[in-house]
């Protein structure tokens, strides 16, 4: 919904996604277009979601230029990259997601007549119940070749143990693989306004049965990733994200202070 609202309301676009509206339920996309959802005003959550998506696809494009030919979209949700990829069959895409979410997405794709590209493989995996490695092995992933991996909007929903198992599975991929993920920082690192805003949103996601349970301080996450086998980590903070992607805007689309990106390489 946030990516779709961005296409409708924000100019210039930070993240250009022509499928963000079509993949939604038609009633939701009609309500958005007709401005019935009270989503017109820019907000930090929308900025955060388009920032992480844009930064991930920029990093993916750089990895493809270096020769990477596999993209793992972990916790893909309604991510539409595979259906608008400019790399065609040169880049294999594996969408890994919770089986229930993936089944719902496949219904949405069919209902919206969005074609499944030949280079796309769906790999249902519940990270709380099985390892990424097991799911990838079933899906025909080439473990001997490097991959670019995104994990966007996911770790806050996982137990720390399931998140760690997923980091370790990515760290064990072929040398030259990369991971980009986003994470929230602990409440203690937030200002008062941001703590209040997070608590309000947290109540909403908990009410729909998907509570936020896992936060990381950037230094702690970097240390964990290095201990798990990543050789390079780079934390991208929202101040740098704001400067890079949101400079010179006339509207008030701005990142808040609570969400960070981490880019790591094996
Ligand atoms: C907020 S959505 C993010 C979707 C997408 N990556 C994006 O950036 O819009 C959270 C995603 O995490 C996935 N997820 C949550 N818990 C999971 C689990 N235990 N195993 C696999 N996926 C999970 C959900 O299925 C969903 O696709």
**CATH C-level label:** Alpha Beta
Strand order of the largest sheet: 3-2-1-4-5-7-6
Beta-strand percentage? 5-15%
Helix share, percent:
25-40%
Indicate how many domains the architecture comprises. Answer: 1
How much is the radius of gyration in Å?
Answer: 18 Å
Q: Compute the number of strand runs.
A: 7
Task: List the secondary-structure elements in sequence, H or E.
Answer: HHHEEHEHEHEHHEHE
Supply the number of helical segments: 9
Structural class category = alpha/beta
What would your notes on this structure say?
- The protein is of the alpha/beta class.
- The protein has one domain (45-265): Vaccinia Virus protein VP39 (Rossmann fold), CATH 3.40.50.
- It is 39% helix and 15% strand.
- The protein contains 9 helices and 7 strands.
- The chain has helices at 2-9, 26-33, 44-65, 99-111, 132-139, 160-171, 192-207, 218-227, 238-245, and strands at residues 70-74, 92-97, 120-124, 148-151, 178-184, 232-236, 259-265.
- Strands 3-2-1-4-5-7-6 form a 7-stranded mixed β-sheet, with helices on both faces.
- α4 (99-111) links the parallel β2 and β3.
- α1 packs across α3.
- The longest helix is centred in the N-terminal third of the chain and has 22 residues, at 44-65.
- The mean pLDDT is 97.
- S-adenosylmethionine (SAM) binds at residues 75-77, 79, 97-98, 101, 125-128, 152-154, 157-158.
Short description:
Helices cover 39% and strands 15% of the residues.
Secondary structure elements and pairings:
Blueprint: H1 2-9, H2 26-33, H3 44-65, E1 70-74, E2 92-97, H4 99-111, E3 120-124, H5 132-139, E4 148-151, H6 160-171, E5 178-184, H7 192-207, H8 218-227, E6 232-236, H9 238-245, E7 259-265
Parallel strand pairs: 1-2, 1-4, 2-3, 4-5
Antiparallel strand pairs: 5-7, 6-7
Helix pairs in contact: 1-3
The structure holds S-adenosylmethionine (SAM).
